[in-house]
């Protein structure tokens, strides 16, 4: 069975001290709470990885980087490799976020390389895909997401594909307060699962966690997470406020 996941994407926010405080607040809540929680992931800045891995040690919280280099190692000033991330104890990497695609001109090809490097260092990629506003308006959203998934993931072996988490994040919903309706999100998640079933098989498609991202807040998480093909969320803004993130985590329990 696939996992429920609530992943925070802190983006370029928090300094080490405030980041640790945030991680502490979440891990204390999770450690003291009874009952079932979804898998919780904190996507933190590179500078915080090692510290936060230690802050959440002995909880079930996983730590993710928000990007990695598409190169293995070498003379690439300022880059951070998958191997370096792995050495901090982080176990996941967010790859192909729309901000990386649009602001840092990451192509499908570059993203595919990052996915492979991340997997080769035994970390789990959280692969982001999603259409922009214009593509949605022109009804090209399914085509766009299909292209992104084929380019980045469809030459992976079945075993490797099984280690990927997919996050569908319509660009027009990110940081805008305009989230996709549960129906719009469900429709895309079902489409993605069918694509995987066609390319690989139904069992694998049924086991992949597909998260929704884009203005997920405590007041809309429950309706989104109730959808049959939505397995959780990738949360930006609301992951920076411990109480909001905790409310979103708890949306699975009510
Ligand atoms: P948001 O960001 O929740 O602030 O819309 C989501 C994301 O970018 O992953």
The helix-strand sequence is EHEHEHEHHEHHHEHHEHEH
Number of helices: 12
Total beta strands: 8
Quaternary organization: single chain
Shape: globular
Q: Any idea what the radius of gyration is?
A: 17 Å
Low-confidence stretches: none
Q: What class would the helix/strand composition place it in?
A: alpha/beta
Bound molecules: 2-phosphoglycolic acid
Strand content: 5-15%
Largest sheet: 8 strands, parallel, barrel
Q: Could you report the average pLDDT, rounded to the nearest whole number? A: 96
Determine the N-to-C terminus distance: 20 Å
Helix content: 40-55%
Task: Provide a short characterization of the protein structure.
The chain has twelve helices and eight strands.
Can you give a write-up of this model?
There is one protein chain. This protein is an alpha/beta fold. 43% of the residues lie in helices and 14% in strands. The protein contains twelve helices and eight strands. It has helices spanning 16-32, 49-55, 82-87, 98-103, 108-120, 133-137, 141-153, 158-161, 182-199, 202-207, 221-225, 242-250, and strands at 5-9, 39-43, 62-65, 92-95, 124-129, 165-168, 210-213, 232-235. It has an eight-stranded parallel barrel with strand order 1-2-3-4-5-6-7-8, surrounded by five helices. β1 (5-9), α1 and β2 form a beta-alpha-beta unit. α1 (16-32) packs parallel to α12 (242-250), α5 crosses α7 and α7 crosses α9 (182-199). The chain is globular. It binds 2-phosphoglycolic acid.
């Amino acid at each position: 069975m696939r996992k429920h996941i609530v992943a925070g994407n802190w983006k370029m926010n928090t300094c080490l001290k405030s980041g640790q405080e945030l991680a502490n607040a979440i891990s204390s809540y999770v450690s003291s709470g009874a009952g079932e929680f979804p898998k919780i992931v904190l996507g933190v800045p590179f500078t915080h990885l090692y510290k936060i891995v230690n802050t959440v040690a002995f909880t079930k919280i996983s730590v993710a980087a928000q990007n990695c280099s598409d190169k293995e190692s070498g003379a690439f000033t300022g880059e951070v490799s998958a191997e370096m991330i792995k050495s901090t104890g982080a176990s996941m990497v967010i790859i192909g976020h729309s901000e990386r695609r649009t602001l840092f001109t990451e192509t499908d090809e570059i993203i595919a390389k990052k996915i492979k490097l991340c997997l080769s260092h035994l970390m789990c990629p959280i692969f982001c895909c999603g259409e922009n506003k214009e593509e949605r308006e022109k009804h090209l959203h399914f085509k766009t997401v299909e292209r992104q998934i084929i380019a980045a993931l469809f030459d992976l072996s079945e075993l490797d594909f099984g280690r990927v988490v997919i996050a569908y994040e319509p660009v027009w919903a990110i940081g805008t307060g305009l989230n996709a309706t549960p129906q719009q999100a469900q429709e895309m998640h079902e489409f993605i699962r069918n694509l995987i079933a066609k390319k690989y098989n139904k069992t694998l498609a049924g086991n992949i966690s597909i998260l929704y991202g884009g203005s997920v807040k405590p007041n809309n998480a429950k309706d989104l997470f109730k959808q049959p093909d939505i397995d959780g969320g990738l949360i930006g803004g609301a992951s920076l406020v411990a109480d909001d993130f905790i409310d979103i985590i708890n949306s699975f329990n009510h």
